[in-house]
User: Which sequence fits this backbone?
């Protein structure tokens, strides 16, 4: 899946969250917003997994504990919902960890207890990106010579040419 396709999914999710927020505004429990957002996403035709379990491994051993994602949309975007006064940094760290462990390229942290969904949300991009249909970790087959990262671009130098992947 391309960056534009993933961003299109994220854009649609935020649009659905805005619609839910227009109906109720701030102040309700996270579970109420989750149920409404689920209905809105399904109505718009998104593939949705609610409270999706991701198996956890520690040093190659599968753990009995499983990671539980609030929403997984189109098997690409993790949506973590909150209804809190302020988004604490630990919520961002939590979502980044979920994205890494679930190997998903994009995550949305949406706080419904805000005046505006856009200002109360955080979009995150994982270093788990796609290149020519392959996962970033599989790039060894391209004889990667070096990788340079700046704030906006991941630059991959291979034996034959340099490829750039914009990260957000």
Assistant:
């Amino acid at each position: 899946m391309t960056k534009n396709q993933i961003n299109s999914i994220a854009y649609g999710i935020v649009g659905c969250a805005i619609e839910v927020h227009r109906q109720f505004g701030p102040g309700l429990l996270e579970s109420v917003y989750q149920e409404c957002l689920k209905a809105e996403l399904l109505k718009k035709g998104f593939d949705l997994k609610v409270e999706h379990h991701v198996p956890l491994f520690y040093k190659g051993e599968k753990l009995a504990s499983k990671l539980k994602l609030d929403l997984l949309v189109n098997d690409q975007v993790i949506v973590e919902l909150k209804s809190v006064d302020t988004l604490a940094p630990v919520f961002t760290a939590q979502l980044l960890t979920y994205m890494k462990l679930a190997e998903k390229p994009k995550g949305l942290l949406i706080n419904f207890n805000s005046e505006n969904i856009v200002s109360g949300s955080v979009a995150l991009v994982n270093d788990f990106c796609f290149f020519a249909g392959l996962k970033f970790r599989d790039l060894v087959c391209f004889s990667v010579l070096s990788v340079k990262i700046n704030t906006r671009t991941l630059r991959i130098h291979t034996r034959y040419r340099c490829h750039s992947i914009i990260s957000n």
Q: What stands out?
A: The first strand starts at residue 48 and ends at 58. Residues 130-168 have pLDDT under 50 and may be disordered. DSSP finds three helices and ten strands in the chain. The helical segments are 3-24, 30-43, 89-102.
